[in-house]
Amino acid sequence: MQLVPKTKLAPEFDPILEKIILDVGGMKCAGCVNAVERQLTQHPGVKSACVNLATEVAVVESETGAVDADALAQRLTAVGFPTQQRKASGTLAGEISTLPDPAERQRREMQSSVRQLAIAAILLLLSGSGHFGNLGTSVLPVLNNIWFHCGLATIALLIPGRPILVDGWLGWRRNAPNMNTLVGLGTLTAYIASLVALLFPKMGWECFFDEPVMMLGFILLGRTLEQQARGRAAAAFRKLLALQPQVARLIANPEKGGMGSSSVEIPAEQVRVGEWVQVLPGDKIPVDGEVVVGKTTVDESMLTGEAVPVIKQPGDMVTGGTLNQSGAIAIQTTRTGSDTTLAQIVALVEAAQTRKAPVQKLADTVAGYFTYGVLTASVLTFVFWYFFGTHIWADVNMSGGMEMMGHAAHEAPYSPLLISLKLAIAVMVVACPCALGLATPTAILVGTAMGAERGLLIKGGDVLEKVHKLNTVVFDKTGTLTTGNPIVTDCLLIEEMGSKEPHSHSTTLTASPLPTPYSLIQLAAAVESGTHHPLAKAIQQEAQQQQLSIPEAVDFHTEPGLGVSAVVEGKVVLLGNWDWLSWHGIAINETAQQVAQDLATDGKTVVCVAVGGALAGLIAVSDTLRPDAQSTVDKLRQMGLRVMLLSGDRQEAANAIAKQLGLDSADVIAGVPPAKKAAAIQALQGQEIQREGIPNPKSKIQNSKSVVAMVGDGINDAPALSQADVGIALHSGTDVAMETAEIVLMRDRLNDVVESIQLSRATFNKIRQNLFWAFAYNTVGIPLAAGVLFPSLGFVLNPSGAAALMAFSSVSVVTNSILLRRLAHHP
Questions:
Q1: What b/e string do you get for 431-459 counting C-beta neighbours within 10 Å, with b at 16 or more?
Q2: One MF term in GO for this entry (predicted)?
Q3: Which fold has domain 247-352?
């Protein structure tokens, strides 16, 4: 017996993966993210885990049934990260939830931060009063008492600083030290050193109780501002979540009982497919469905970004979450709950925020070892200055540079121990893993939420990075560059072609009868009744406009991209291109070929019609360009991108469309059936791209490998969309667009291709800026705190200054992400 190796042809052997979504609390920095991911990936059965600091969500992939989600949640909760499983609908799993919903949790955390900040601000004001000289002490003499400052520092540690110290200790104990560990060590060291100096004055040490108070004050200020900024960054996504309707009015079949039948309100997620729902003016439509009774206008701006309401009447489809404006309607449900378009958009946007850009891998790697590295740097700083630095630069110790170390430098001489200790504390406090952890997720959060507002669904950070590298955009022709609503322009019988001069055929219809009771259009319409191709729709519409009767056809057969056949009145009728007819042994004379070529040169698609094994005539169909096709192509070329056309039409027809768009014939790939479009994209990806003929070329991508975006309608183009580096689908109302493409354009606008690329580029630029500043901040801040400029310039960061700088770094990264809203191009 021969064993069959496991291949792609045997998918039954491949494990099916499921996704578990967890709401994770207690994460403060990139070190926490790394600790959570490590805990998840070490759990048996887990294939991969991705954690987002900005949204506090973890997405875990595992084999179906191999992992207990509750066990994962309990494991994280046990190590200090309160966790709860989330259902697909966005609600928390379990009969009793141990966590409030994320929005409520964020609100409570914000209130707690403001209270702690208020207490820290009062303590900071009292502690810093000594810096104002006699002004403060004349009002309250106690402000000059060192025991009073000791009390202020103690209160600061016990009240506003307590959560930081506890979390830092827990992180240390579970072998996952974080930013709070560093801050806690720094403040406690400063406090204990000052307390020793106070209790043992003969040692000659300086008391610097102000430092713990100032450090905690600046850190809490930074965290409060950071929380506010993160809340603003998530505002657009929360607004998207709020669109999900909660209640539906269930009614009996309105076609029998009418709209006036009694209704009952039930939760929208409990409506079943096929049931009828009443929607009154001003209501949100609760489910996806088809209008069966009534007429109204619907505001679909939440879905498409278009402010103009859309008229809906019986037979039209409506989407859950859109707003019914003018009339009462009854709809029959087609999709509910997590299957609705809005739910899919919400799930897609949320998933996008957990897909990391490859550029973040370096940041994640650094963050995993960051705290250990900083602690090592702090210890080395202390050792160097205590044993070497204070002896090598003994004169600097007594110079004015020492005044940088604290306001009371004149009160007591600085010992080498205190100098070394302060520098070590500054190193611990100045380092900020938070900036590294927030650099990517906040930018992706803002960018993807902005895109969702405008009907541009971008599926994650990895997509943003690929868009940034694009140098080629390939458009499908029919339904993408063109309107997808072709019309019949010519109908020529084979007997008439000999009398027509080349290039002189009329665009009016020739209705001469065939040697049968039916015209060419009637036979073609009968055959095309068995398919749904855009060309079939054009031929059927022409027959309807001429009010022709359609004969009955049987035995339909379709070959995608080639043609269709059927039996009409006992005769086999074939419709398709030359290859299709030749394959069936039907000869095409030179005159017919010349006429067909002339039609194709004019940009028309030629359908050959054969009856009973002989060519009977030609039907020419023309599909006009979208109004925004030309401007879209021009803008993409101005951005330095090569624009190409991919079509199943003959070369002449594709060249005619390309000529209208100003594209060179070298940028046209024609005669490619849907099944081979993916292979065409793959071949293009292996080519080197020459940039000489493109306006405003980007020098960095000259003569580079083609990085290809495929733009299609998301139906026939699914394989090509999947093969391309970036698949961009115009929303077609089908799930294949959501599943296959990496960018989905919900509006029926070709210009959104340009906008989606611009938004992706702007978002990725923000990610790079954030990562640059996060790395640069730590690269510069840690040496400054370690005293690298102390010997030469007498400059050194004191611990409170280091704390202020650390707080500023996180706030600046999040604020920079929010600025994306102002800088990104608006339509």
A1: bbbbbbbbbbbbbbbbbbbbbbbbbbbbb
A2: P-type divalent copper transporter activity
A3: 2.70.150
Q: Does 644 score more than 90 pLDDT?
A: yes
Task: Classify domain 457-481+626-689+703-746 by CATH number.
Answer: 3.40.50.1000
Q: What residue spans of 558-676 are helical by DSSP H?
A: 578-583, 590-601, 629-638, 651-661
Go through the chain and tell me how many residues it has: 827
pLDDT digits (tens, 9 = 90+) for 51-106: 877 677 888 888 877 888 888 888 888 888 888 887 644 443 333 334 445 566 66
How many C-beta neighbours within 10 Å does residue 495 have? 12
First-to-last CA distance in the chain?
Answer: 64
Tokens of 295: 């007429």
Sign of the C-alpha dihedral computed for residues 506, 512, 515 and 518 taken in this order: positive
Tell me the CATH number of domain 17-85, given options 3.10.20.30, 1.25.40.20, 3.40.50.2300, 3.30.70.100. 3.30.70.100
Strands 708-712 and 726-730 come out as: parallel
d(CA 618, CA 321): 47
Residue range 447-452: average pLDDT?
81
Both tokens of residue 134? 């006699």
DSSP reduced 3-state for 8 = coil
d(CA 420, CA 179): 22
Boundaries of every domain in the chain: 17-85, 107-237+356-441+768-824, 247-352, 457-481+626-689+703-746, 484-497+516-624
Q: What are the distances in angstroms from CA 275 to CA 118, 296, 333, 603?
A: 55, 20, 6, 47
Helical residues (DSSP H) of 234-284, grouped into ranges? 235-242, 254-257
Helix (H) or strand (E) holding 212: helix 210-233
**490 noted as active-site residue:** no
Question: Are 204 and 415 within 8 A, CB to CB?
Answer: yes
Q: Which of 476, 598, 667, 713 is catalytic?
A: 476
Whole-number CA gyration radius for the chain: 35
Specify the pLDDT at position 396: 56
- Residue 274: φ, ψ to 5°: 100, -15
E strands along 713-801, which residues? Answer: 726-730, 743-745
The backbone torsions φ and ψ at residue 58, rounded to the nearest 5 degrees and listed phi first, read -120, 130
CATH, domain range 484-497+516-624 = 3.40.1110.10
